[in-house]
Amino acid sequence: MVAGGSSVSSLRVRVARKIFEAVDICTFELVSAGGDSLPAFSAGSHLDVYLPGGLTRQYSLCNDPAESHRYLIGVLNDPVSRGGSKTMHERVKEGDLLNVGIPKNHFALAHEAGKSLLLAGGIGVTPILCMAERLAALGKEFEMHYCTRSKGRTAFFERIRRSAFASKVLFHFDDGEPRQKLDIAAVLQAQQAGTHLYVCGPKGFIDAVLSTARAYRWCEAQIHFEFFGSDMIKRDADGSFEVKLASSGRIIVVPKDKTVVEALSEAGVKIQTSCEQGVCGACLTRVLEGEPEHRDVYFTPEERSANNQFLPCCSRAKSARLVLDL
């Protein structure tokens, strides 16, 4: 939903400041190119950033949601990036103009929570930090754990250390003493009833937290997570299958070496995409018949088991044909 009921779907912004926060991490302060106030956002929100060269990437907002004069995003220069982070670090400079989307939030705080447990891994700190600052402003009970490879790679270390909620944050460094490393099981077991869990970071980190939480029978409704990327799965055993468009009855073959989005695009059927990794949900499509093979990191286990929707940017089919609501 667009703030204030506006029909505007994108914004023109200027890079007011680009700051090196830690090893391989930059923040970009974005302000309205026309000097106007920016649409409001809530903790956990992200922006679609339309980059030079035609790429679109999502970056979490990490400034105070009460601010209307700027958006702040943090970007890791990932060596295995598909081009987004490299473009941000090497081509985007102070003074440049960019187009961005209206803030969206698929990782919102549950304000009814008795307590919030915030777990951040690496650059996953961006939405988590925003949440911590919001919870502190509201006087809510929370606990934050921030895991990084080393202190030198810890973005916002001083900002957190000097904050009013610094006593609620524990840092965990991979190159530090064993006793200071995060014991996921111990932290999850120690929580009171009614605690909501929020986790963001690399896929391996999130998977470890989620599997532990589910092993300890955390209520699924109290588990919240957001991935920044996924491991695109391609298997030697992948075969071709058909998709049928419900509106026209047209049948399109998806070869083993192409995604559903690619096959549809070549057939003249366009689906809105953004991350193309099964992370953001922009291409979510209803499945009317057939069984999808889910390869995303967007749906919950319950949503996957319903088999009535899938992400065609990455997922495939277990059945010979999928009938799609297209």
UniProtKB/TrEMBL annotation:
PANTHER family (alphabetical): CARNITINE MONOOXYGENASE REDUCTASE SUBUNIT, NADH OXIDOREDUCTASE HCR
Keywords: 2Fe-2S, Flavoprotein, FMN, Iron, Iron-sulfur, Metal-binding, Methyltransferase, Oxidoreductase, Transferase
InterPro entries with a match to the protein in the record: 2Fe-2S_ferredoxin-like_sf, 2Fe-2S_ferredoxin-type, 2Fe2S_fd_BS, Beta-grasp_dom_sf, DmmA-like_N, FAD-bd_FR_type, FNR_nucleotide-bd, MRET
Molecular function per GO: 2 iron, 2 sulfur cluster binding; metal ion binding; methyltransferase activity; oxidoreductase activity
Cofactor(s) of this protein: FMN
Short name of any one Pfam family annotated for the protein: DmmA-like_N
Protein name as annotated: Vanillate O-demethylase oxidoreductase
Signal peptide: none
Residue span(s) of domain 2Fe-2S ferredoxin-type: 241-326
Biological process, per Gene Ontology: methylation
